[in-house]
Design a protein that fits this description.
Layout (H helix, E strand, L loop, with lengths): L1 E8 L21 E2 H7 L4 H10 L7 E9 L8 H18 L4 E6 L11 H13 L5 E5 L7 H6 L2 E4 L8 H16 L6 E6 L17 H13 L4 E7 L13 E6 L2 H17 L9 E2 H10 L4 E5 L15 H6 L8 E6 L1 H10 L4 E6 L11 E17 L7 E13 L2 E6 L8 H6 L9 E4 L6 H4 L3 E8 L34 E3 L1
Parallel strand pairs: 1-3, 1-4, 4-5, 5-6, 10-18, 11-17, 11-18, 12-16, 12-17
Antiparallel strand pairs: 2-3, 7-9, 7-19, 8-9, 13-14, 14-15, 15-16
Helix pairs in contact: 2-6, 3-4
The protein binds zinc ion.
């Protein structure tokens, strides 16, 4: 028995003007064949899958295809996506015959001219392996599920959590779903419902009993405990996508069609009824910074959704650092930027040098306002660490050469490349203690809460500029289906799930 495994992973943000090229896949590691199996043996969804399958008594042989993962950013260029898909498919062709295929995907990857990358990959995989072979894919909770994806895969297994703290478990669940189909010979159908809504991410915390998402997570996990249900997922969708099939979705894969339909309809109906519970509560940036400054002790976290590097923004916006530098901070104020030119200048100047830095408006001319700031180079370092928590398990991160630029007690961490700028280990790598700060900026709409909820005295989601605005429906999206909430109010809508065998 032989199972092929590959990974294609990026959350795209089409409001980000920076194209994603092949070079953007290199920092997280491009792997082929056995190297994929070795390097990802305990990393993210592939690690969960590999470890699960290695415990099967049938002892299947694993055939590593290719692994391409890039940090969220703008659309993938046509040349790059053609090369990536060809690379995965050529290796699958060479690996044949196999008995099943597992793909670790994000589900919200967009290339120029290809709005449904995962659907296209699954279609081409299906064309290679034929209609009967089990093809299972794992997906992020912010996946944009398309009908093509559902039709071409045997089962799609979504994260249940946001913050995404179940990446490894999702790989394990994908292995369990595959086992039912491949070994137990389960004959499954999928109930699929697309909803005319996009759920904002800020309040969608599946780990917080006060969040609208909490009971959806409980419901999905309870459903999967039912032996008739292989997998159940609710995709709130990545909102910053201008694509024709944008929208949240519910999918339920089961051996018993009426059960799949019932659960799918119920979940879709509940999501529709409770959509307003997702609308974000934002604090104006000057107010949030003033409140943080007035806090005599404890950590205040400013959630920066709009310039969230986790959501594919450029990470170059200057609004927050500008506001922070208006105050004297008794305890450190920590904030971050993706600014390769600022790192190079800091390297030229050297540690201890004082100069006036030009920041912003280089990578992102739409949302990032250029500023000049008097700084001292406090540290030069490599932004390399292992991410475990939201989005990653044992995931090697390399944001390249980096620097700490100090203005008073404001510490601005500038990196060469984008990445998980919210991560506590990123600040530690720079020699700073994130939990001892007075205020810290987390470029993330919700996922940062996994690391900071228990440490923060206060958390404010700030209203600030960026490619991932919290009020995305106030921005002109051209190429999306309408009506779509919250762009449009929709009086009446009722789910009508379709069954796909
Ligand atoms: Zn996500």
């Amino acid at each position: 028995m032989r199972i092929a495994i590959g990974q294609l992973w990026q959350e795209t943000n089409t409001l980000n003007p920076l194209p994603t090229t092949r070079a953007d896949f290199e920092p997280l590691g491009i792997y082929f064949g056995d190297e994929l199996l070795t390097k990802l043996a305990d990393v993210n969804e592939p690690g969960g899958f590999i470890q699960s399958v290695r415990q099967w008594p049938e002892n299947p042989e694993l055939a590593g295809l290719a692994r391409f993962a890039a940090w969220p950013s703008g659309p993938v260029t046509p040349d790059t996506i053609a090369e990536l898909l060809t690379s995965i498919l050529d290796r699958l062709r060479t690996a044949l015959p196999v008995d099943a295929v597992y793909l670790a995907l994000h589900g919200a990857m967009v290339a120029e001219g290809m709005p449904d990358v995962e659907g296209e990959l699954l279609r081409q995989v299906r064309a290679l392996v034929g209609p009967r072979m089990p093809v299972v894919a794992s997906l992020d909770l912010h996946t944009n599920v398309t009908r093509q994806m559902v039709e071409q895969a045997s089962a799609l297994v979504l994260y249940h959590t946001a913050p995404h703290i179940d990446v490894c478990e999702t790989g394990q669940r994908a292995a369990a779903a595959l086992r039912h189909i491949l070994i137990d010979r389960a004959v499954v159908v999928t109930a699929f419902q697309k909803l005319p809504l996009v759920a904002p991410a800020e309040r969608a915390n599946t780990q917080d009993p006060a969040s609208v998402s909490f009971k959806f997570r409980e419901c999905l996990q309870r459903a999967e405990a039912d032996p008739d249900i292989l997998c159940a997922g609710l995709a709130t969708v990545q909102p910053w996508l201008e694509i024709p099939e944008l929208g949240s979705a519910v999918i339920v894969t089961s051996t018993y069609a009426p059960k799949a339909l019932r659960l799918c309809r119920d979940l879709a109906e509940q999501l529709w009824q409770q959509r307003r519970g997702y609308l974000p509560e934002l604090t104006d940036l000057p107010d949030a910074v003033r409140l943080a400054h007035a806090e005599p002790d404890g950590l205040v976290v400013l959630g920066d959704a709009a310039d969230s590097t986790n959501s594919g923004s450029t990470g170059e916006c200057t609004a927050i650092v500008s506001e922070l530098t208006r105050y004297d901070w008794p305890r450190p104020a920590l904030t971050t930027m993706v600014a390769p030119y600022a790192v190079e200048e800091a390297q030229r100047q050297g540690v201890g040098a004082r100069y006036t830095a030009d920041l912003g408006g280089v990578r992102d001319r739409r949302f990032s306002t250029p500023i000049r700031l008097d700084v001292e180079v406090a540290n030069l370092f490599d932004a390399r660490f292992t991410l475990t928590g939201h989005i990653g398990k044992n995931m090697p991160i390399d944001m390249g050469p980096a620097a700490v630029l100090k203005h008073g007690n404001v510490h601005l961490l500038v990196t060469t490349r984008s990445g998980p700028h919210f991560a506590p280990d990123f600040f530690r790598t720079a020699g700073l203690d994130p939990f001892a700060a007075q205020v810290l900026t987390a470029k993330s709409p919700c996922g940062f809460r996994a690391a900071y909820q228990d440490h923060a005295k206060k958390i404010y989601m700030v209203r600030s500029p960026g490619c991932a605005p919290s009020d995305f429906w106030n921005h002109p999206y051209l190429n999306i289906p309408r009506p779509l909430w919250p762009w449009d109010e929709i009086d009446a809508w009722a789910p009508e799930p379709v069954l796909i065998a």
